C-alpha cells in the first residue's frame, strides 16, 4: 500500500464528519487535507489506544522526532510520507504538526481543566491549529481567515467534548471545566459513575447534568456564530469545506441539546447519508 492509499484508508476508517467535506475538494487539495488528517489521527490514536502513559509519552516523542526528520527530508511513516509533498504548496509548517503533538501530550499530563480559559488553550492545540492548516489547504487568501479557523476549531472541539462526556469519563478524563461543574453542582465522581452509583439520586443528577450540558451547548453554538462572523467574504467560497463541517457539527450539537443526558450512555451521531446531505447542501447553496 502506498502512502497516499494509507492516508485515504486512515481518514475513511475514522468515520469522521470531516471526511464528507473532503469529498468536494479538487484532487490536490483533497489529497493534502486527507494526508494531514491521517497524521492527526495517528497522533491522537496514541493517546486514545495506548493505556500505558509512559509508553504513550514515548510514542509521542517518536512522532516529534518523525516530524523533525520529515522536514529534514527523510519521512518514515506512511502518514508523513503522504503529507510531506503538500507542506510547501500549502504552507504547512513543522510547528503546526508539533502543536498537534503538544495538544495530545496535554491529554497525558492532565485530565481536568479549572476554567474555560484553560480549556481553550488545549482546544487551540488540538483543534485551532488543525483549523489553521485546513484553511490554508482549502485556499485561504485573507489573514483574518486564520482567526475564523481558530474559532471554528474551538467550536468543533467543544462539540466533541460535549458528545464524548460519558466515554471520556470512563477513561478518567473530564474536559468540562471544573468551574462549570461547580456552578451546576455536578461532581466529577458522578460523571465517572454516570449517575448510577448505589444510593445516588439518579433523577436529581440528571436534572443537574442536563442544566450543565445545556450551558455547554449554548456556549458551543455561540462559538460557531462567532467563527462564521469572522470569515472574510473573499474567502467564503474557498472555505466551503469548513462550512460543511460546521453544518454537520451544529446539527449534531442541536440533537444533543434536545436530550443531553444521552451523552452519558451513548455516542450521539448522524448517519453517513445525513452527513453527506448536509455537506452537499452547503456545496450547492454556499451557506449553512
Summarize the structure.
It contains 14 helices and no strands. It has helices at 3-14, 17-22, 27-49, 53-71, 78-87, 94-109, 116-138, 144-163, 165-170, 178-183, 188-192, 202-230, 240-258, 272-285.
Task: Describe the protein in words.
With 288 residues, the protein is an all-alpha fold. The protein folds into 2 domains: 1-92, no CATH class; 110-288, Farnesyl Diphosphate Synthase, CATH 1.10.600. It contains 14 helices and no strands. It has helices at residues 3-14, 17-22, 27-49, 53-71, 78-87, 94-109, 116-138, 144-163, 165-170, 178-183, 188-192, 202-230, 240-258, 272-285. Helix 3 (27-49) packs antiparallel against helix 7. The protein starts with a helix and ends with a helix.
Order of helices and strands: HHHHHHHHHHHHHH
Number of helices: 14
Write the CATH homologous superfamily of the largest domain: Farnesyl Diphosphate Synthase
Give the class-level CATH name of the largest domain.
Answer: Mainly Alpha
The CATH architecture term of the largest domain is: Orthogonal Bundle
**Assembly type of the shown chains?**
single chain
- Straight-line distance between termini: 37 Å
What is the approximate shape?
globular
Fill in the CATH topology of the largest domain.
Farnesyl Diphosphate Synthase
Major sheet, described briefly? Answer: none
What is the count of structural domains? 2
Q: Which structural category fits the helices and strands?
A: mainly alpha
The overall strand count is: 0
Amino acid at each position: 500500500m502506498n502512502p497516499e492509499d494509507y492516508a485515504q484508508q486512515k481518514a475513511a476508517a475514522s468515520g469522521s464528519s470531516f471526511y464528507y467535506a473532503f469529498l468536494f475538494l479538487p484532487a490536490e487539495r483533497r489529497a493534502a487535507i486527507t494526508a494531514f488528517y491521517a497524521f492527526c489521527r495517528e497522533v491522537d490514536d496514541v493517546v486514545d489506544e495506548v493505556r500505558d502513559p509512559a509508553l504513550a509519552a514515548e510514542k509521542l516523542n517518536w512522532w516529534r522526532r518523525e516530524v523533525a526528520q520529515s522536514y529534514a527530508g527523510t519521512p518514515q511513516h506512511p502518514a508523513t510520507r503522504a503529507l510531506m509533498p503538500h507542506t510547501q504548496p500549502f504552507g504547512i509548517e513543522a510547528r503546526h504538526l508539533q502543536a498537534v503533538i503538544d495538544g495530545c501530550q496535554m491529554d497525558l499530563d492532565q485530565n481536568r481543566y479549572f476554567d474555560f480559559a484553560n480549556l481553550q488553550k488545549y482546544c487551540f492545540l488540538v483543534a485551532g491549529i488543525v483549523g489553521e492548516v485546513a484553511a490554508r489547504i482549502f485556499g485561504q487568501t485573507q489573514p483574518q481567515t486564520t482567526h475564523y479557523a481558530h474559532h471554528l476549531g474551538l467550536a468543533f472541539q467543544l462539540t466533541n467534548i460535549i458528545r464524548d462526556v460519558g466515554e471520556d469519563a470512563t477513561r478518567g478524563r473530564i474536559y468540562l471545566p471544573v468551574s462549570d461543574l461547580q456552578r451546576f453542582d455536578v461532581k466529577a465522581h458522578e460523571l465517572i459513575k454516570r449517575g448510577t452509583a448505589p444510593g445516588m439520586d439518579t433523577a436529581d443528577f440528571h436534572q443537574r447534568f442536563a442544566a450543565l450540558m445545556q450551558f455547554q451547548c449554548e456556549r458551543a453554538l455561540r462559538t460557531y456564530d462567532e467563527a462564521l462572523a469572522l470569515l472574510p467574504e473573499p474567502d467564503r467560497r474557498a472555505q466551503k469545506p469548513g462550512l460543511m463541517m460546521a453544518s454537520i457539527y451544529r446539527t449534531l450539537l442541536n440533537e444533543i441539546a434536545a436530550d443531553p443526558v444521552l451523552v452519558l450512555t451513548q455516542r450521539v451521531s448522524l448517519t453517513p447519508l445525513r452527513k453527506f446531505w448536509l455537506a452537499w447542501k452547503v456545496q450547492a447553496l454556499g451557506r449553512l
